[in-house]
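Fold it.
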Amino acid sequence: MQRIATTVLGVVGAPDAGRRRELVAGLGQGANVRAVLPDPDGAAIDRAVEAWREAARAHVPFVVHDADPLAEVGAAWIDRWDGAGDVGRMEVAVQAVLQRWRAGTVELPDYHLVVAPDDLSPTARHWHLGVLATEAPHRVVVVDDDHDALARAVRRLRSGRWWPDLAALLAGLDRRVPDAFEARPEERSLII
């Protein structure tokens, strides 16, 4: 992980992309916070690269964005276990983010602010609050879908262990099973 002087906050979760952008822009109104809003129509990894580039150049205590570098990985993992995707898509997404990470053009935000997790599907909720939170519990913060709640959450951020090396975090992802997963007969051999 590249260390920079700015604390980077990634807003992820249930609201649609427009609502996440509103929350980011609202939080960016603070004197010590800069909102970074990459092109919403760009590819997820390109948006994350742009957000990281802006965060690395920032000279404020906080940078907030909605460009999750693990968006495609998470979507592929969720689809895999919801029966809509396959391991191949997930492997491609993992390799794409690792390639950018190894080149130093993308990093995980210091904190994932998960907005309204109760509105997520069970598998999506497990991605954020299970897979990611297990790796760095204090780096995943649950927040209500409200500007004031988001600002309060930022003021109350706790320190804790850093995210593991991204390659280690994503290793064996195809074997990480959601809590609520009930294997179909043809997939039982995958869960060992």
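DSSP finds seven helices and five strands in the chain.
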